[in-house]
Amino acid sequence: MEVQINCLQLNQLNTIHDKEIINLSLINKITKVEMYNCDVIDNIEMKDGVVVYVIQQGKESEWFFSTRKGKFEVSEELGYKRTILVSIDYHRRVNDIEEIYQEVKEIGNILKYKGYKGDIQVMTDETGIGKRELLFEGKSKINGKLWVEETWKEEGEGKYSRKLIFEGERSLVQSEGISINKKIDIVESIKEVPYFKGIVYGIFNEVGENIKDITIIGGGVHILASGIKHWCKNTHVFSVEIDEVVNEAGIKCFNTGEEIERCVCDGIEYIDKIKTDYIIIDVDCKVRNENDIAAPHPKFIEESMIEKMKLKIKDVNGGIIYNIVARNDEQRKNLINKIKLHFNKVYLWENDEDVNVILFCFISNSNRFNSFNNTIRDFYNSITQIK
């Protein structure tokens, strides 16, 4: 395997760098195409040895493989001084570890620390390395290179996870749907993403069969919009996405057949023009480290913007729904306190399975979520009135 590696990084790897993570790409010298992405994790307290762990395709964004803390937990679990976490590049079609075993073994030999003469251990998930198919690839002015991939899920034959991923943020899944026999299943897709389920069930409890206008800012590939339309048949759902390439990926790879209106434009400019019953803010922002507030975008929590959005709610019983992503507890608490000052009734949805929390913010003083619907009973266990 002829690969191109950053020489400075390779020199660094000659010695053990305790409690450090060094990331590098292995690029084919001839084609100049990336073959693997590697995280090298050293732990001097572990036994002498080098282990190469090949991450199952589709699991690269899971907590254990996408966060610093998670990677160290994997390293400690495996128990060697040097752990090399290997991600297979999304362009490659690999269905079995045997197809790449010798290459992976060679990665271990190339990246081992100086003086180590033992065997290189190769490990994978007990269910194998999975399968991946590239369905869409594009480049946008806003988010750069992006793609849609489909990877095998463990739960059943014919069931796949379909994900939108940005090259600059590979550790994050931008949008996800579940496909069965190559078609997006909207019910399974909403259930797969806990915070989507929280929003959809909350809207369903509020709206039921009534005719309401619902506007989503940060619509992405429009899975959330399709979910709301599926559960609330009489709603008019407007899904606003600023990135035309993301919108294209949604139409080509995540179309469920639900009747929703898609708009490619700036969300703030769109809000200026509308009157609606509910506004859902699902807009993230680029963060430098995992403790920063990833959602909502700061523009949507400015006092003037919140007050402007309130004026756009045409029904006194309507409201604004925020998706919040903040791993730091204090930051999340402060953000919630800031938003709830502007509303009379506020409810917090949170779930142990999801870092996202949802704020249901209402303008009127009427109590909400009192009526019980047996089909969404788990929603009521996750919702708390905080104002």
Automatic annotation (TrEMBL):
Cited InterPro entries: SAM-dependent_MTases_sf (IPR029063), Spermi_synthase (IPR001045)
Gene Ontology molecular function: any one: catalytic activity
SUPFAM superfamilies: S-adenosyl-L-methionine-dependent methyltransferases (SSF53335)
Protein's UniProt name: Spermine/spermidine synthase
Species per Swiss-Prot/TrEMBL record: Entamoeba histolytica HM-1:IMSS-B
